[in-house]
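Subject: mismatched residue count in predicted assembly?

I count 301 residues in my input, but I want to confirm that the predicted structure covers every chain. Input:
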Amino acid sequence: SSSETLPTNSPSASRLAPVKEAIKALLNQPDYDDGSAGPVLVRLAWHSAGTYDAETNTGGSNGAGMRYEAEGGDPANAGLQYARAFLEPIKASFPWITYADLWTLAAIVAIREMGGPEISWQGGRTDFTDDSRVPPRGRLPDGSKGADHLRWIFYRMGFDDREIVALSGAHNLGRCHSGRSGFEGKWVNNPTRFSNTYFKLLKTHEWKKKKLENGLEQFIYVDEDLDPEEQEEETLMMLPTDMALLEDPSFKKWVYKYAEDKELFFRDFAGVFAKLMELGIQRDAQGDVINQENVEDGYRS
Ligand code: CCH
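Triage response: the counts match. Full output below for your records.
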């Protein structure tokens, strides 16, 4: 039976199936951004996990601390309230699933639905019941910085250079919003389709530095062959941290490989995103989560 192959505090496949269907059904959001909730759901999961600090074993995808102001109100998490709001009806329909599991599962379902790889996922996360274990602010990356900053942030989580570049490929999805991060625009023309286009564009286009009205600097590409109106619509962007992947030889190598080999990128991304979703979670030999409290009884059925 499934109880022999699945961790006992992770929801069973049959229990998860309708939750996954419900996530798929909410992705199409004609009035939101580029018509999909997918990209912002992926960012929610990433920011929920990307607070991990390996040395102190704090932060990570357990707890769903962004429900509390201490974490949710971090300017780095601006806009992620939309992602959480998209998922509220699902939480209401399936109250047995924890927020921490729902947020990570939603990203995995969304990536697959947007044409990305199948990513393995295990449940069993619990939700904090107060904000006492919410990680300190300042652990998420700052887009205006360079390669040293990327290493500082991602080495802290336990990732290496190849993994940093693979993870950055998530910027195939979604966009920057001037009212959230202060940056503006999308990385690729079809930002709701998961692919390696981000790496191809990073490698081939000529990116020009542009100072925004708010003082932030980003890089843009304008197709000079288009008429002015189309140029406005089709302007693409890169963050300084995205450009840092080109400037640093050990990062650049992987940008070029992923630009040329979509399958390699998909394989690496699937592995590294699964690893990201597991940050801060300890499991025993059976895959049971061992460092969580309050696992609901429902998870054991
Ligand atoms: Fe990112 N990201 N990200 N990012 N990100 C932004 C948007 C998305 C950085 C900065 C930004 C990852 C890594 C980094 C997504 C996934 C990932 C924005 C715009 C900034 C700024 C936010 C806004 O204005 O709404 C920096 C710096 C790094 C350093 O490496 C990683 C890793 C992932 C996932 C694996 C996704 C998806 C978005 C689009 C969100 C949306 O709302 O469309």
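The first helix runs from residue 2 to 5. Marking this ticket as 'not a bug'.
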